[in-house]
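Re: the request from the purification team.
They wanted to know what the chain is likely to look like in 3D before they choose a buffer screen. I agreed to run a prediction and write the result into the notebook, where they can find it.
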Amino acid sequence: MQSQDYKKRLKLQIIIILSIAVMSCGVPNVPTALSSLLERESIRVGTVYGAGTFYNGAEGPQGFEYELLAGFADYLGVTLDLYPFYSYEVMLEQLEEGNLDIVATGDAVTPALKRRFAYGPAYQRVEQELVFQAGATRPRDLAELDSPIIAVAGSSQAHLLSNLFKRLSEEEDEAVQTQLITTEDSDSEELLQQVANGDIAYTVADSNRLALQRRRYPNLAVARTLNENMPMAWALPLQQDDSVKAALIEYFGTVHQSGWFTVLEDKYFGHIRQFDYVDSRAFNYAAESTLTQYKSLFQKYAGDLDWRLLAAMSYQESHWNSDAISRTGVRGLMMLTLATASDWNVDDRTDPEQSIRGGSRYFASLLNRIPARISEPDRTWMAMASYNIGMGHLEDARILTEQQGGTPIFGLTLNAACRNCVKKSTTALPAMATLEAMKHCNMLRTFAAITTA
């Protein structure tokens, strides 16, 4: 995130505060945690590996927490020194020992954790879900579990369950067997995979992690919600002064006000929070049985494009069926019209190689037609919308959006663009355009699934 103005403003505030301290009543200048961090020109941050926190993707480091942390480092004008951990508890111990400045766990805050650490502002709220394998007997109550719940040691889930079982014993006025086992050998995502595979019966996961994993493991089911409103925040050393916390408050206020936080949240979570069990199972089957046949062709003709994006578009167009045909006459893996096929030298639209070659070149041409003033990722999302509903319909939606007081260019990411386009098109565009826009909304979900598969 480019934030030169933010850096200058924050550093000016620090200088003013320190100058006042020097001049007031002869009190010696005592460095704050933030001034020490700025002098060091780096911030040491701990996080855990995971799809929602930090991972090495095809284009380098990625993850919701990672991008927020990189933005904060840029905001301060310092280098981000990131230390990913496999062990949740070891990471927290490193923060307590002063070896880290901040810990971004991607986990919720509990009263027990607040007794160990200070926290920055809450930037999200999540639900904690008791998860079991679909098809198994749904547990009605914690007191009636037939197997223990496995949770990561030291996590918010472990703290929450411990308190719930304690409260249950007090309500029953008798000892209730605590069906909780904590582990440091698996993280939350691995525990969800074990539930999906039938290796363990239950775990508890927050709504963010569960949403990400259900796209890969659609047989994960929610037995009940254990807590509906738990805050997410970054942990700080408990005895540290409030200077870094104050900087975090200003940073999160800035990214919320600018809309960047909404863009980032939509990028990582917006496309997977509406779960479709049947669609997920169909996609997983197609990815294993069909995508392998065409992967080399997508890679061959991708050019400067990401082959996975082309594959995602093809799945939403035809479900990777080379003989697919729509009511309007478009055909093939990339669902080309006769006119588009002719423009891009495609003689047989049902031929997989010709269809992928023509579709990829057509999409690249649409991408080049998007005005240069529109930056990524909006350029790609708008080109995808044009591929589905046509450049003319996209312009109609843009004009209608502007007339009704909205942002004339899709200022958020794909999901927001789709919602806007669908909403406006229902009153002014043909019904087929609306259906195509809805289909366009699903492409990011498919792309994410291919990316993490």
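For the purification team: Residues 126-231 form a domain with the D-Maltodextrin-Binding Protein; domain 2 fold (CATH 3.40.190.10).
Please add any questions underneath this entry.
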